[in-house]
Amino acid sequence: MGTAGPLLLDLLLLAVGEALLVGLGVVRSARRALLFTGLAFVLGWCSLGSLISLSLVLGASLALWQPLVLALVLVAGGIGLALVLPAPAPALQPAAPAPSGLARLFGLGAAGALAVYVGLLGIHAAVAGSPAVWDGWAFWIPKGRAIYYFHGLRPHLEGGFASFAHPEYPPLVPAMHATVFRFAGSADAVVLAFQDWLLAAAFLGGLAVLLVRRVPAAVLWPALLVLALAPAFGRFIGTGLGDPPLARLIALAAVAGALWLLERDWRLLAIAAFMLVGAALTKAEGSLLGLLLVLALLAAAAWDRPRHVRPLLALLPLPILAAVPWQVWLRVEDVVYAPDYKLGDLLRLGYLTDRAHRLGTALVDLPGYALALNSWLLVVPTSLLLGVLVLRRRRSLGILLLALVGAGYLGLAAVYWVSTLPLSWYLETSADRVTSSIVLVCGALTPLLAAELLREREEA
Predict the structure, then answer these.
(1) What is the 3-state secondary structure (H, E, C) of the chain?
(2) Average pLDDT, whole number, for the chain?
């Protein structure tokens, strides 16, 4: 099918996402469908990828008709939900004040610059193909090829899914690689870079359409431009790794959750739920990060208005439950693996005491990867400063950011503490990737934090 096949898949992902947004009452017109294109694409990638992963666990071969049928099921589900639910009140409507004069020109200029830069990243991805990243070529992409060639997971075949490093990692990213290969008609990895660029561009579009309701254009577009210009954002596009899509899903879930704290629109929690499920199936730490995000939301809501925590309780088990079918499959298939760490070791006092030096090193070294100017510019310190300043006006937002960043930092340090791998090598080869989720959350929440501070000044 050549290049036409992956483009057909992209349209399919977009259709799935739009249908789900229709079902949630977010999209009910062609204009709104266009506005929500970015969010719809990420939602389609996440939901269809999750369903494909589940089908593989149940023994599917990933023949071309199978993702097509699964996509139709999701589209039908979205349309059916729209027919069942009563006509909703206007949902997720733009509410930010329209800028005027220089502010408007500044916002439009930043939006134009962002569009040009993201377009250049897309051209680079299409021309250069997949960059040479070790983990991508060592097991992420080969797992996708194994699913493609062996028509399913087939863990006990030589060269099958479990033949590569980290067979315990959830299968969503390799499953989507294999789906791209299936639509392309070959396992040439060169097509993956452009597909990942589409997901990265859709992530920025999804952030924009969610935040534009409360963030003036003069704040929104410059903030997103700075995030996109961060060298690491472009460097991670097309690597084939699981970390970049995980970071995008967690960041979108965090933004949806933050907006829910301010607006109490249940559709925002529904969007966050899809992202959390996808994150749990994207990488091993996706469940941990998702759980920390829900706990941070609970803390923020409880501090602000305790009676509003109930809807969040429905999200609490999702990051764990989403990973259960995969964990069951690993045990049923008797897949042998040696994980880099076991969180259960955090309960072994003697083990922890003997490795206390690792914790100290991790706590000292980890911030350097998130704060490095040549990777993420000033994304993290700017966000943290705004998070502290906003505590007086929008306490729940400040608590959400600071709690999530703090818990994520300590959680990652704990992983390095109990890991069996040599610490210096482990940090050097993974810290820049695993910290990207925290950084992207900071960058995604920055425009909202800034807008709420500006709103405070205007109302004072």
Answers:
(1) CCCHHHHHHHHHHHHHHHHHHHHCCCCCCHHHHHHCHHHHHHHHHHHHHHHHHHHHHCCCCCCCHHHHHHHHHHHHHHHHHHHHCCCCCCCCCCCCCCCCHHHHHHHHHHHHHHHHHHHHHHHHHHHHCCCCCHHHHHHHHHHHHHHHHHCCCCCCCCCCHHHCCCCCCCCHHHHHHHHHHHHHCCCCCHHHHHHHHHHHHHHHHHHHHHHCCCCCHHHHHHHHHHHHHCHHHHHCCCCCCCHHHHHHHHHHHHHHHHHHHHHCCHHHHHHHHHHHHHHHCCCCCHHHHHHHHHHHHHHHHHHHCHHHHHHHHCCCCHHHHCCHHHHHHHHHCCCCCCCCCCHHHHHCHHHHHHCHHHHHHHHHHHHHHHHCHHHHCCHHHHHHHHHHHHHHCCHHHHHHHHHHHHHHHHHHHHHHHHCCCCHHHHHHHHHHHHCHHHHHHHHHHHHHHHHHHHHHHHHC
(2) 92
Q: Which residue has the tokens 């818990």?
A: 407
Half-sphere exposure of 254 (CA within 13 A, CB side): 35
- Contact criterion met (CB below 8 Å) for 370 and 376: yes
Please give the pLDDT value at position 134.
85
d(CA 174, CA 153): 10
B/e letters for 353-371, b = 16+ CB within 10 Å, e = fewer, are eebeebbebbbebbeebbb
Distances (CA, A) of 273 to 100, 249, 270, 315, 437: 36, 10, 5, 6, 17
**Which residues, 6+ apart, have CB-to-CB distance to 132 below 8 Å?**
none
Residue 130 reports pLDDT greater than 70: no
Beta-carbon contacts of 431 under 8 Å, excluding residues fewer than 6 positions away, are: 365, 366, 369, 412
Q: Model pTM greater than 0.85?
A: yes
Other CB atoms within 10 Å distance of the CB of residue 403: 20
pLDDT category, 328, cuts 50, 70, 90? very high
Q: What is the pLDDT of residue 456?
A: 65
Cα distance between residue 366 and residue 312, in whole Å = 30
